[in-house]
Amino acid sequence: MKNLNYFPFERNKYFYGKLLSVDDFETEQKYMNNKRRMGNRFLHGCGVISGLNVVQVDDRTFSLEAGLALDYAGREIVVERPVTKKLTEIEGFDSYTEEDEERSSLYLCIEYEEREKEPVYNVAGDIRASLRDGEFNKVAEGYHLFLTNEQPESGMTDLDAYYEERTMVYWGNGVQITQIFPRFLESGQEFGWKLVVENLGEAPLRFSYRLLLDFLECGGQDFINVAFDEEEHEKTGHYELAFRARALSVRNTDGNASVEEDNFTMSLGGRPVYNAKFSGGNTMRILEGGLEEEIKGRYYRETMDKLTKETVRQDIYLAELSVIRAETTYVIDRVRPMPFEQYVYNGVLASLMDRITQDKIDGLEKRMKTWETKGISLKKQSGGRAERPAFQIATGTAVIDLGIGGTAGQKFFSQEITHGLGLGAVTVLLGEAYSLKDDSKILFGDPDVFEDKGLSVKGKFAARVNVAAGTFMIGLALSETTVTRRVKIHWTAMKDNSELRYDREERGLYLKPEMAYLKLRETYYFEPIFTGAAEHGVRFRVKEAEGGAIDENGMYTAPNIPGVYEVIAESTAYPDLRASAFVVVRDI
pTM for this structure? Predict the structure, then answer.
């Protein structure tokens, strides 16, 4: 079934005396099958519904568990009982043995298959032709297993088509390196991407290369230095590394992350790999609106054409098999099931995922209530955004253990205490309790003022705040010798949020306008716009060396050469804020 066009739907119209032919019965079957298969494909997608797990039995054999899947045409693939197979029995293994590499990956795939069964004589036809050509009474629906060393093309799976894009940037020497980027980004927002590394050999892998960024940035740079050292990880042969980057403040533009040629190194077991070519890259659409709305809109707009007009087969990858080959023999090193996560989520599983998500939300709400009891109030604005109060306060107690006591001048310290007010500077006020009892009096300030003899110890207290960790430590320097074993300290931590009213991720910097069209040597003023942060100064620059000039006030002068140039503004107060605008200079 290479044609996925289920239409038009036609069914038999029955009446008394109608002569039914082979075409009528085939029309009947086609109508019912296409209706069901269209519903399967449109509502559920392509992939494994249940079971079909692949388990290694020994060095040459694997077992496929019973299960159910839907193929790219909506046809059901049923494996009704577990089967055990040797690799040599699977189609595609012979072509694999002709390759030069001693170690590589094979992918076990499954597809729908029909075969005729129960040969019969055609009583209405030529007997000799019937004996020669054969007629069959039934068609049995089944499955076919095969091996391939090719990964699915980018965009072939449902997840790839609408959410992420996989690009293999290197494959050779038993090593595969794949980049996974989102297909869609929100303007000015951070996003995550992954690097998947597979090393089928025993020699430790090390490599590095550079990704050039267009309309993207990482740490204020228009490139990413990617590096991997297998010796820094537990040896598994399969690694997934997470990275962060940010889309520039542009809209409806394609961002690119492309591998820079001739800027990479690779070694296996400390030996350099020469002539290794990294290539390729990923393209992402930077959106003006929300990500959810865009993906949902594209899905509804494009699904009909994608599912009915495309005729390219989409295979279901059940497992990745790491194989070691030596001359005429081979060994299965390991099996990784469902390498591309081609699953179909039914209603039960979707409900379970929703339940887990709701449990996480409930847990977060409970923690928020706990924070509020400690003075970390999270009030809601009319727009629903959590707003920090002008001041946050947290209180608590700490007990400093003096052992068997101490002498004058001796110092004691508490453990690191988490105050719960987040990162940044806080003010800590300390008070010494007269005893360890809850109803004990507390002294704040200089003990000599009250000339009180009831204190546990006499000394000086201080607090040292770690602004990068959200913690503090209490120190005590004794002024008199004491035999007291423990001292109770009451602490109050205060944080002023007047300069930190917005969370870091809420800050934004944009240039107005984001796109300008100028003539040669024409001038134009770019205005920096801050959102979620107080306005501070910015530093302007032009990315291209011959892209014109811009002064400290944002006045840009176009160059004598036509082209597209990028104007960059960087906040002097917030190093994480950076914005770009683009100038199209025309020779008119």
Answer: 0.52
